[in-house]
User: What shape does this take?
Amino acid sequence: DTNHAILGIRRIGKTSLLREIERILKESQDPAHVVYLECSDLLTSDDYIREVVRKLNPRELPRLHLQRYIFFFPDFLERMGRAYKSKIIFLLDEVDNLVIMQRGDWELFRMLRASANKGACQYILAGFREAMREQYLLDSPFYNFAQEVRLSEFTRRQAHDLILTPMENLRVRIKNK
Assistant: This one.
C-alpha cells in the first residue's frame, strides 16, 4: 500500500525496473489494475489527466473538457477503482518534466497525493534530479509521499557476480576478469 519513488541517474535501469514491476503485478494472484505512464511528454495537468482517462475509461474523453479537474479527477479515480474492483497502481516513468512544469502550483500532485491517501490508488514513480530534490522539500507534495528506492551503479563485486558467476556455471571461462 506504500507509494514508492525509484530515483537514480540516467540509464541506471529505472524504466526496466518499472516494466518488471508491471509484469509481476499483472501476473500476481490478486491482480490490481496496473497503469504504466511514460510522463516525459505529459507537461500539464490536462495532459496527465487526459492520458489517465484514455487508459482507464476512454468513453469519458469527449466530456472531459467540460469538467473541472480538481473535482472530476479524484472522483473519477474512485469510480474506476470500484469499476475494476481493485486498487489502481500507477507506474509513472520519467516524472521530472512533469515535476518542473507543476512546480509552484502542484495542483496535479496534490490530487495524486489525495487519491493515494484515500486508498483509491498507489503510485510507483521514477525520476532523476527533480524528483530527488522534491523528496526533501517540506513544502513539496512529494515530501513523505513515497518511500525512496535509490538505484546506483554496481560495485565491481556485484558486476562480477551478475556476469561472471552465471557464465562460470555454464563452464564458460572469461579471460582478463
Q: What stands out?
A: The two ends are 43 Å apart (CA to CA). DSSP finds eight helices and five strands in the chain. The first strand starts at residue 4 and ends at 7. The domain at 4-152 is CATH 3.40.50.300 (Rossmann fold).
